[in-house]
Batch of 2 targets.
Target 1
Amino acid sequence: QAEVLNLAMLTGNAQSWPVTIYAVARHTNAAAVLSVSAALRCSSNDTDAIYVHANCSGTFINTNNSAGAPRMSVAVAFNDSGSVVTAELPLRVWVADLPVTVVADVVELGSVAGVFADAGVCSQLAMQSS
C-alpha cells in the first residue's frame, strides 16, 4: 500500500505523482512487456482524498482535497478487444488536522553550535525570531 501526505492544504501547492502500469503478455513460449496506456481507464474511490487522471497518467492532490483516507484505492481498467481486466492500487492518504498549532518548548534564543557567520568573521551565529 502506497502512502502519500497531503501537503497541498498546508502549502496551497498541488502535488502529483506519476502512475506507471506495465502489462506482461505471454506469446507462445515468450513473454513481452506491452504498452497499454491507450487502453487504460482509472478512477479514485475517494475524490475527497485524492484525484486520478482518467487516462491513468498520474494521481494528484490539490487544495480541494481536504480528507485523509486510511484505506482507499485507485481502480484501473484495461480494455483489450472487449476483454476487461481490472486491478486496484491501494493507497493511504495522510492529512493534517487543521488548524495546525506549533508550540515552542524553548523560548530563549541562543547560539547555534558549530555554525559561524560569513567567512572572515569569527562570531557564532545565533537563533533569530521574527
Target 2
Amino acid sequence: MATSSILRSPSKKSPKKRKHASVKNDALPPATTSIRVEVTEENKEYDPVVVSFPRGVPTSISNPNGDDADGDDGNPGGRLSPPKFTYSKLKASSSRGRRVTGSDESCSYSAFCAGRGHDNRLTKLYVAVLDKRNKTLKLIPSAEKGTVFALDQEVKAYTPNVSSSSMGVGGGNDGSSKAVSASNRVQMLVESFGSKKKQKVMASRAANVVNINSVVGAGNVMMDSVVKQGGMISEGNREALLDGSKVLNPVEVALLQSRRNTLPPFDVNADSPHKVFSAQLIAESTAWEKCSKIVDKVLKKADETPEEHWADKLLGKGGHHESLRTLLKSINPTKKGSVHRIKTTFLLSLIIRFHEKVSRKGGKILASSLDDCVTQVRLPAEVGPRIFELFSTPIEGREQGGYMMSRNQADKLCVWCLILYVIAASNGKDMAVSSINQLCKDMKLDDKKAALFLREAGFVVKKNGVGDLGVSLSVPLTFPPPKRGKKT
C-alpha cells in the first residue's frame, strides 16, 4: 500500500497577522494538518460502484421527507425509502460485463457495461474516503476499471390515460366521459409546434374528410350506407372490434384504408351491382346539382335545334372525346334512367378536361386563387372546386400560388374516370361494358394499367379475341388479395 502526505488548506478564520513572522522550511504553515493518503489496490469484490442519474437525482434521495418547496408535508405517511440496488454479471456464462439494477417506490433504474477494461486512459476514477479521526484519506478504485453507470429511469406501473372503448386520449383513468381523440391531439401538437409542411399535410387531411350533411341522401339512408361499409372487416375482426380487447388485423386495416383513399365511395354489402358505386356521391351535392342543371337545359333545347345533336352541344365542338361522344349518342334521353347516365357522362367529361389541362401544363395549374384555377381549366364554378379537391394539392411557398397533381392523384383520377364510364355505359342494373379501349385511348391510358386499376376496384376484366377489354361487376363485392413481394 503506497502512502504519502498532503496539506489541508487553512480555514477561513486565519490567525491574526504577526509582524516579522518567519517560518522554517521544515515546519508546516499555521492552522494546517498533515493527512496520510492511502491508495488501495483493485479488488473486484469490494471496489465501490459509481452511478449517475442523468434524469435527475431521485426524490427519495434528494428529498426523503417529501417536503414541498413551500414547507408542506408532501409525504404524510413517512419518509421515502432510498432506492435499493443490485450488482450482478451481465451474462452468467461470461466474467466480463456487469449490470446495475435498482428500484424505489415509484421508479426503477438500470445500467450496464460491456466490461472491455481500460481503453488506454491515463486517468482512472477513484473514490476518496476521508477519516478525520485517523487523519487518513483512502483512495479506492471504482468497480469495472473506473466505469460510471448512467442509470436509465422508468416509472413503475404506468398506465396510459387512454379509454379502451373509444380509443380517446384522456378518458381512461379519471372516469370522465369527455376525451380528446388521438387524432385531435396530434392536430393540436402540429398546430402548435409543427412545421409549415406538416401543417399543410394536416390541413389537407382535414379537407378530405367527407361531411355527411353535404352529401345527397344524408340522414338515415347515408348513415346506413356508411355502416354497411363495415362489411369489408372479417367476422373475427368485427368481434374483436366490438369486444375491444383484441387487436385488428393490421394488414386488413391497411388495405381497407388504402382502398378508401383510392376508390370512390362504395357499398360492400350492396345487393345489386349498380348500387356499389354512386356518381352522386362522387360529385357531392353542389357539383351534381350544377351538372344536372346543365344537362336538363341542353335536353330541353334539343327539340328547338334538331339540326345539331344535343351530345355535341353538351360536350362542345372542341372536345376530342370520341368515347364519350359515341356513348352519349347511343343513349335515348326518353328512356328511364337515361338522364342519370347523361349526367354521369357529363361529369366524366369535366374530369377528363381537368386531366388534359393539368397534364399539358406539367401537372400544375398556377394562379392566385382557386377561382382563377377553375377558370383556366374552363370548368363550371360549382364543379371545379370539387375536382381540384379530389385530384390536386395546393402549392405552398410561391407568391403566385396554384395547384399540382401528384402521380398518386393522377392514378386516382384514372380509377374514378374508369368507374364513372362503367356507370354511364351500363344499361340497367348490370354494371358491364363490352369495351373500354376507346376511353383509354382518349385519356392516353395504357390498357394493362387500366385493367389493373379496375381489378383492384373489384371488377372483372376480360380481353376478347379482337383485343377489346370487357368490364363487369358482380355482388357481393370482392377485392383481390394483397400481392406478396418476390423473394430475393
